[in-house]
Amino acid sequence: MIGGIxxxxxxxxxxxxxxxxxxxxxxxxxxxxxxxxKNFKKATKEIDQEDKETVKKEPEKIEEKLNS
Length: 68
Hints:
Forms a complex with TatC. Its main location: membrane. GO terms for molecular function: protein transmembrane transporter activity. This protein is an all-alpha fold. The protein has one domain (about 5-55). About 80% of the residues lie in helices and about 0% in strands. The protein starts with 6 loop residues before the first helix and ends with a helix. The model has no long low-confidence stretch (mean pLDDT about 80).
């Protein structure tokens, strides 16, 4: 069970998606969703890296921002 959604609900959702988009579009949709997730993960990793570098380089400025 995923967040209150059971197997019957997932099957119904998948059938509706299949009807709306058709079998030919499903690989394209899946690929697009996969690329979107990959880009999101990459962006969050880059932000985390930038934050870590900022903390190492400018600890005084960060403390000033936190205290103000």
